[in-house]
Structure formats: C-alpha cells, structure tokens
Design goal:
By secondary structure, the chain is of the alpha+beta class. 48% of the residues lie in helices and 16% in strands.
C-alpha cells in the first residue's frame, strides 16, 4: 500500500456505506465482526479517485473525524497535556521527537487530551462512540452522508445506490482486481 492510499483507506474505515459489506466477509468473534488485514482491508477494492475526488473524500473524512473528536472530547471539558520522555527518530514517536542527538535519540513531546477536572472526567466517561451513534444526531448523519457521497463518486456510482447493488459492484470490482488463481 502506497503512502498516498493511507488517508483514503482511513477515510473509508470511518464508516462509509462502501465499507459496510466488509463485515459480511470478516471474521467473527462471538456476535461481533473482527476486521483483519487479510480478510478485509488488503482485499478491499478501494476506489481510484481523481485528485479532486481524493480531496473531497479527505475533506469529508476530516469533518466527520472532527465532529466525532469534538463530541468525545469537548474543548470546554478538556485540556491538552504534553508528556515528555526519551525517544528515537526511528521509533513510533518520530513526529514528536525534538532535538535528536547524533544517535537519533531526543525528547518526545506527545500532546494528549485530558479532562479539565474530576467533574469533566465523569462526564467524559459517558462520551463514547457507541453512545454518539446510539443518539445519532442529525449532524452525524449529514457528515456520514457527505463522506458516502464523496466515496461513491470516486467509484463512479450514484449516491442512491441500494445496499444490494453496492455489494454486487464491490464484489465484481474485487474479482476483477484479484490476482488470477488467488
């Protein structure tokens, strides 16, 4: 997977209609789907968008992510705290490493969001994505619809496509792209 595909794949996994069928083919643990790279994401036929479509998908995904993030951690209930510890420029903290020495070891300055106080901490415990989606506010539906429409446009499909037609088209696309004999 090329680096350029990463934001597109992330956008798709934020919950577009095109990814919903992935759960039909995923592994199952108890009654829940389990998404694994080999059974879901590596074989998923992502669209091949134009630069304009890629930008529309990215914008819609950013809006959905911001909506979800702001609901989970409202700015009036949270503050940013910076953790500092040693880290390597070759490690998982690369983008947070400051002033590395000749060995590539520097100070990691990792910003994290924490509750402003105990009252806010209690309120934040109730702020889960499950609770957000159970409430399903209109703005969340609109954000998902915008992302769905952007992704479907990248496939060249109408926004009003039925779930059955969507699944059939994704399967056909997957079969066309799959290596022969796989």
């Amino acid at each position: 997977m090329g680096c350029q595909e990463c934001p597109l794949r992330l956008s798709l996994t934020l919950g577009t209609r095109s990814v919903t069928p992935v759960s039909l083919g995923g592994n199952h643990v108890k009654a829940r789907s389990r998404y694994t790279p080999t059974t879901c994401f590596e074989t998923f036929p992502i669209p091949e968008p134009t630069d304009e479509q890629r930008a529309a998908i990215a914008e819609a995904a950013r809006e959905l992510d911001a909506l979800r993030t702001n609901w989970l951690n409202p700015p009036e209930w949270t503050r940013e705290e910076v953790l500092e510890f040693p880290g390597s420029v070759d490690g998982p903290w690369t983008r947070y490493v400051h002033d590395p020495d000749k060995r590539g070891i520097g100070t990691v300055r990792y910003p994290r969001v924490v509750a402003r106080d105990e009252e806010c901490a209690g309120a934040l415990k109730k702020r889960t994505l499950t609770n957000l989606y159970n409430e399903r506010p209109t703005r969340l539906d609109l954000a998902h619809r915008k992302l769905d429409e952007a992704v479907l446009a990248a496939y060249g499909w109408a926004p009003a496509i039925s779930d059955e037609a969507l699944l059939a088209k994704l399967l056909a696309l997957n079969l066309r792209r799959a290596p022969h004999g796989a």
